[in-house]
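Lab channel / #folding
Pinned by the channel admin:
"Please post every new chain as: sequence first, then the structure tokens as a reply. Keep commentary short and put observations after the output so the thread stays searchable."

First post following the new format, from NK:
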Amino acid sequence: MRPSLKRKPLNIAIRVDANDQIGGGHFRRCLSLAEELKSRGHEILIISASLPIKFQQILRHLSFAYELLDSSEIDKDLPAQKMEGEYGKWLSIPINVDAQKTNALLKNFNPHWVVFDNYALDFKWVKLVKKNLKRTPFLAIDDLDNRYLGAEFVLDQTSLIKKKKRHRSMAILEGPNFTLLTKSYNELRQKSISERTKRLNENFDLRKFSILISVGMYDPKRILPHLLKATARIENVKIDVTTSSNSQTISEMKKLIKKYSNVSLHLDKIDISDLMVTADLCIGASGMSVWERSCLGLPTITIAIAQNQRILTRELNQMAAAKVLTLTQIRRTDYLFDEIKKLKNSPEELKKLSKKSQNLCDGLGAKRVVRFLEANLRPVQIADSAKLLNWRNKLHVREGSLNQKVISKKEHLIWIEKTQNDKKGIWLIYSEGDINIGHCSCKFLSKSTVDWSFYIGENDVWKGTGKRMLSFFLNDLFFGRDIEKIYAKILRQNLKSQEIHKHFGFTYENGEKNSLMYSLSKRKFKSHFYSLTE
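Reply from TO:
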């Protein structure tokens, strides 16, 4: 797992499914990631075991390569391994067969990354897929933290409040700053917020109040008819309903729609940003669309329609960023009617919901995730001199360094000249996308032993950047350069650095008055992160 020394087109494999049980949110966020990757010139292969025809048509229309794992070609001599637990039914073929078929598709694709987004996949799947892939890194898109994933990196875009993870990974991309939305949401963000602010200051009696009903591509809890019946009773409203042609309640919805002249039904519409911009209120689920609505500042009545949505729903309620109703309340038509009517007649409350929600997500998450996938470790060059000197003399860098004095330009130039030909050390710049972020270095104590150091030079970076940088550096040293052991000398008062080292498996060796010595062997590192997948 060694980032390239310069940005080049990457091959990214994405394993994702969609159906009436799984829903369409996992596919939608992976599609957003794929579109951003494609815009940066990368090659994408989407692999699915279950994908509705409508979604396949979308992929073909957007010219994405995709492969379906064919359940009819299962080797009868291969013992089936069933996935246990609540999400085991999400896999249409046994997990080991899924993995082996995925691995076979990847042999010719030669991926630089494997991304997977399915609550039924875990380290057992990763272990089988990894065969013949050398040290290809894996990114799991997951918000459950209910199993060991086996991926080096995890993207959890649903956490508003940072939580300690139960299951280990090298680094996490956490929170709505990394939410995978299509670019249209960020592009429409300012327009949506500006126009909504203007509309909320108008008299709703002089125009129709626009309500969007959108609980996802499917309706497993069969609540769409309840929502429509309650909403359509309200005077002077215009209603847009989005769902898929495969939704569990589509027949009933089509019959209901004929009764109301003020209702429009939108089927199989992946990007509903245009409807969100013009809506005054949305009634939706606490899934992927939470972040779409937040980005556009759309006031929302939100409902947890799946177990994994309950935590986010509770957090939204605590932050007053949405009006929360339960499934039981939703099914009580009179109660729902009263709640919607109250909000319609409370422009000040709508303004508060809009303001709170728009601060949660800016719609640039897909760009940030793609920059991360483009992570670079490259040798320090003379052209980096000014930037490195600026970084090294920043207060936060000096406070964490063994040598805390300000470095002069003369000293710095001597040092950087030395890095160009000195074989006694390694000096690298870490970047994500086109943004230089930090510096990693080490000095050889022997052919296979080094003493390392590092720092994040940029101030404006997201939490977790340091762990991401060190994940790549550790893999580069241990597997790219055959280093057997790394030593780290850390200031006693630098508790954050000590915590990061322990996270990666470093153990305490000895201490001096002002510093502590930690070490990590390749064997310990492999045991810490790869014991179940190799």
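NK: The chain is about 35% helix and 20% strand.
TO: also worth noting, The first helix runs from residue 25 to 39.
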